[in-house]
Amino acid sequence: MSLDAKKKIVVHCRNIIKTYGTGASRVFALRGADLDVYEGELLMLVGPSGCGKTTFISILTALLKEDSGVCEVLGKDINALTLEQKVLFRRESIGFVFQLFNLLPALTAQENVAVPLLIQGKDRKTALKEAKTVLDSMGLGERIGALPSELSGGQQQRVAIARALVHHPKLIVCDEPTSSLDHESGQMVMKLLRNIADKEKTTLIVVTHDDRIYHFADRMAYMEDGRIIKSEMMQTGKETTK
Amino acid sequence: MYQIALKMLMGDRAKYTGLLLGIAFTAFLVTFALSYFAGFMTRGFALISENSSADVWVMDPAVNSTEMTINMSSTALGRVRSIKGVNYAVPMSVSDVTARFPNGHFQTFQMIGVDDATLAGAPGLTDGRSPDALHTPQSVIVDPGGTSGKLQTPQAKKDQWPFEGAHLDVPTRELVAGDELLVNDCRIVVAGRSQTIPRFPPRPLLYTTFSNTIRLLPSESRRLTFVLVRAQDGISSKTLAARIERQTGLRARTAADFKEDTVRWYLVNSEDVGDMAAMLILAMTVGFGVTGVMLYMFTYENLKQYAVFKAMGASPSMLLGMIFIQAGVGALFGAGMGIGMCAIVGKSVSIMLDYPFRMMWFTPIFGILGVLIVSLTAAAISARPVLKLEPGVVFSSR
User: Fold this and answer.
1) If one looks up domain A39-65+81-237 in CATH, what number appears?
2) Domain finish residue from B166, B200, B224
3) Best of B13, B306, B312, B387 to disrupt the A interface by mutation (most A CBs within 10 Å)?
4) Which of B32, B103, B144, B306 has a C-alpha 20 to 30 A away from that of B165?
5) φ and ψ at residue A78, rounded to 5 degrees
6) Chosen domain end from B196, B224, B252
7) How far is A2 from chain B (nearest CA, A)?
8) Residue B251 phi/psi, 5° resolution?
9) Is residue B239 in a domain?
10) Mean pLDDT, chain A, integer
11) What is the pLDDT of residues A4-60, one digit of tens each?
């Protein structure tokens, strides 16, 4: 509880309910999920397939609308935002890292990283310069001109992380960031993410099934059947309340 | 982001090449079809084109094309000549005749009777001689008029003018100066061959003098089909045409207006043109379909990439701009390639095969516009799934 008291809450979700379909085919994806995430924290969201992890991160990144409940992210009530405000919110405040990297195959590493800045309206030259700086800091300075197909899986994921970071978002959401990588590359990627949380004070929510990376988390949140059933501080191993 | 959109478009070489080829094919098809059509229409008013010295064409008030004509009284020539502003006016007769070849074979010709004195309207001969040869009595100039193999006369003397009946399936050769034909039982002599603008519909031509047509054709009180007028310096063709109409009651059209009338007449009256237009529309529809589907598929296959942009905060207007810039650039490049190909292929076949191909100023414009409209429509249709796309699909299991 001491951690809760000291740190600023970045994500505050209560009783989130989300269903898909209607009538007899209606399926509950979230059945009243509650979660708090703190500034600079690396939270891992784990649970079996179909438990609602992806739906949950989609809602808190304003990609999906919940049926009911309260979800405040970075001080904004997501439900109250208009479509345009949601677009702006994602553009300014959220970074994404995907399982399959989702790099644009026709763009070089540098151009891929520059995309969020271009979406923000920065001119191409500035965007490319900032992208290079971030790639340099990740040890990919030599590969800025490479196409995704010319990079290894680990390098591609590092490029994807650079893309998630380049516009200095306050929250980065990573969906299975290591599941397409070998153990060594996965560890390298997680070290990078851990470093971001420590140095940049950026909050990271990592959805994963990969138990080999659990030790990088500050806290684990376990989901089951559309709810967060428990969360656990990793440094102490002590189970805490939400 | 537009540069990113273009990189997306051009980055995938295989897809981009396929797309460009598809669009180029459509532009080629549309432009070629229109140029082909324009070529036919140009041949439709070939008679006007080859008489470029005539500023004004005068005809019976009911005539509105070179294809369907009725003759005027011979006094019309004198009346037209009396109009102020007329530099000179010459008669022209146009009629259909059936000529018999020496072996008994027969062929319908369009007979064009030109002014005896000036031979205005008579074509130059292919052997370089002057059309003055027409001054020889009963002489004609023969012209294939866009046909082939219709000006054949028997090679052997024994097959010419046989008493025992026609010798149809005998070796033949092209008509040359000195050969004879029969028109209405009158012997005519070929003075030479010409190669004027091919006709639409194709038909062999016989050029002769106006007085010859009167001698050769069955007796008819009216033989004057057109009066070809040259305007004096300082008077416009339009003004002179209006004056002739006002003062003679005949129809007088400038050469340009008469060409337009003729094209319009074909469009309204010719079943051949209708069939041709239907065929061309079908071809264009196929081309448009190919382009539309290819562009739609291109956007559809990139849905996941658009979902990534959407998740990162790209606005709908930004995504629309990207899709339209891809479609627009693809359409312009493809259309450029297609029209270039069309010009090369069309020119080659028109030279080598005498194909009715004429790339007029409007045909490439229609080609580009057609492709652009189809591309942008396809882009608009393909934009719908992008705009409706749930950005959440970017996550692994969705």
Assistant:
1) 3.40.50.300
2) B224
3) B312
4) B144
5) -55, -40
6) B224
7) 34
8) -90, 125
9) no
10) 85
11) 556 788 899 999 998 888 888 888 888 888 889 988 888 999 988 888 888 888 888
